[in-house]
Amino acid sequence: MEQTLLQEISTFGRLLGAAFYYAPQAQEVKPILNFFRQPNWIEEWHDLIQADEIKTLIAKGLQQDLDEAYQYLFIGPNSLPAPAWGSVYLDPEAVIFGNSLVELRTFLKIHQIAFSSKENEPEDHFGLMLMLAAYLAENKPELLKEFFTQHLLTWSERYLQLLAEQADYPFYQGLSLIAQQTLQRWKTELALTVPKMQLYF
């Protein structure tokens, strides 16, 4: 596995993962928002399709109340238009803490990966899983293919598709388009075959 690809997964996994996971006012997100405020940030990515559109969405979103957007998309109280947890898509009951989460926890336990999230939150949150991909790239790259094909890419495309439809929240809409293309690039570079799963959301 090429070192440059591992470095890319580490860098973008952490950046995108934190942007999806943490609230905009969190300390972890401040440097990320500053990154997206730089005029040439999009040059960090490889050949993004619709690059101008994505850049416009991010810029427009940064002028809005990101806390309000995050609350609507990730917290509630209303039903979430694009739930960020894998088991919502993979479990027949469309619930968090479903069987796919049990399988992810088994994967983490078998490979002795200590994982802490907020208040016993399920580990299959999209943002957490991107940060986990970064950790694996840095520490256990031999596990990346299994992680992507069995635990993340089975549902992430559907999640990002739903998030990309949220036109009232252009920052996260832009993020979803970046994440879609980034994951597709990793899938291609790693020559991954992802099993077709029945999705329930």
From TrEMBL:
Record key words, sorted: Chaperone
Pfam families in alphabetical order: Nitrate_red_del
Leader peptide range in chain numbering: none
InterPro entries for the chain: DmsD-type, DmsD_chaperone, DMSO/NO3_reduct_chaperone, TorD-like_sf, TorD/DmsD_chaperones
Keyword Cytoplasm: no
GO molecular function terms attached to this record: signal sequence binding
Keyword Glycoprotein set for record: no
NCBIfam families, per database record: PRK11621.1
Entry function: Required for biogenesis/assembly of DMSO reductase, but not for the interaction of the DmsA signal peptide with the Tat system. May be part of a chaperone cascade complex that facilitates a folding-maturation pathway for the substrate protein.
Family named by the database record: Belongs to the TorD/DmsD family. DmsD subfamily.
Name of the protein described by the UniProt record: Probable Tat proofreading chaperone DmsD
Species per Swiss-Prot/TrEMBL record: [Actinobacillus] rossii
